[in-house]
Amino acid sequence: MNEKNNKNKPKKEKNIIQILHPFVVIFGAVLFAMLLTFVVPLGRYEVKEVSYVLDGVQQSSKMVDANSFRYVLDEDGQKVVYPAPLFGVSAHKELGIMNVMFAGLRGSTQAAGTVGLIPFLLVIGGSFGILMRTGVIDQVILRVAKRTEDFVMLIPPILFFICSLSGALFGFTEYIIPITMIFIPMIIAMDFDAITGVICTYGAVQIGTAFSWTASSNLIMVQTLAGVPIESGQKFRVISWFVITVLCIIYVTIRAWKIHTGSKKAISYKNDSLLRGKIKNIRDRKMPYGVGSRLVMITVLMSFIWLIWGIAFKEYSLFEIASIFFTMAIVVGAIGTFYHLNGMQFADIPKAFQSGAADFLGAVIAIGMAQGMVLLLGGIDPTAASVLNTLLHWVVRVLSYVPSILAAWVMYGFQFVFNFFVPNNSGQAALTIPIMAPLAESLGVSRQISILAFQLGTGLSHLIMPTSGALIGVLAISHVSWGEWIRSQWKCILFIFIIGFIILGTGIMINYA
Prior knowledge:
By secondary structure, the chain is mostly helical. The protein has helices at 2-8, 22-39, 100-106, 117-133, 136-147, 155-170, 177-189, 194-210, 217-226, 234-261, 269-285, 291-314, 318-339, 348-358, 361-376, 387-399, 404-421, 425-442, 447-461, 469-478, 482-509; strands at residues 43-44, 47-54, 57-64, 70-71. The strands form two sheets. Strands 1-4 form a two-stranded antiparallel sheet.
């Protein structure tokens, strides 16, 4: 009898990751950051003017002087420690812990957040909310799923390759979000799961970005800060990208096959069933694909062509991309209302926009908390007195005593972890590369290795860090919790991280420079 009762009792989830919410993880990090302010003295760097040539034009910029670190001293010559207050701002402009949320959401150049990411997510979410209200995307997904039935197993590897190549060529992370809003539901409709969709879109882009070899704006900045020729070291990066992409394609193909055939149950199955039910409802209703639906799809297609053109040739930022899809939403809303697509009325437009934007509320809060944490540590200005500057200096001191190959690996691990606190790649590069590149050279490691360590560390960290607004946003789209994502993919992410160590070691052995 007892045995029977025990069998009926729900099994306790042993994996603590499943119950951890990203807000809990980030707030725990905020508390840790507050404790650091009690023990870590404040420090600052100086900046210097450097000149370089870009596209034949002489330019100049300011960068951190690696040898200029100084502790902030009081009148008695003692190192200054300023504990963060509970409320308000300290004498050295450190935030109080209870001010973190508001200050982070307000945004600041010193918070290291991607400029405009919060409004970008809200505008994109609202715009696609209007698009999804028309029901046209669901109709198209049904058509595509039906026409690809005979070769459906080719879709995940092909999609992964295209997204990985796009990440390598254009180096974008946040720009993939609008694309995932269409392709993840399509992957689910093909009898895969949402996590497969996340891997094949967002995950693939991050892999490509980590091994990018082209002169994307981010790579140009990093190579300029490191003092190496722009577009140099491409061959090794291309080979590395190809190897890791092939390995990931093998993994995603095997995983997708298991999900598709039912031999592996998806962690996200319960949430995926909501979308499957919605698609089944549309199939049963047999919604007509008429003139209005075609006009909506033409508008969407033109918007994505505009997006690709803008990224490839005009270096569009989040501002322009959000404007593209807001324009699309206005046109689609007008078409949907005029043709009454899916019973759409004019009053449904603001409701759909609000509902779509609300889907990204979790990502917005995560971004705000992460940015507030950076401000709690003093911000990313190297010339301002901050805990963050001192922590960076301590890491540099440790690196100066280790062997060359170990130094490269420590740089890689440091950039990976540091991205948790500074989740913006550009802000992290401006603070760390001018210090790490000359340090690497003094240890017998090429500056290219320090750049590669930065690329791998920052690129791959976005696959796991709860402070990554793009990751939390994509997971919100797919209705997959952060805990489910980690529980499902931690082994794969660990494998990719280890591959990064191997690639850096190989680069040192072949004298990659």
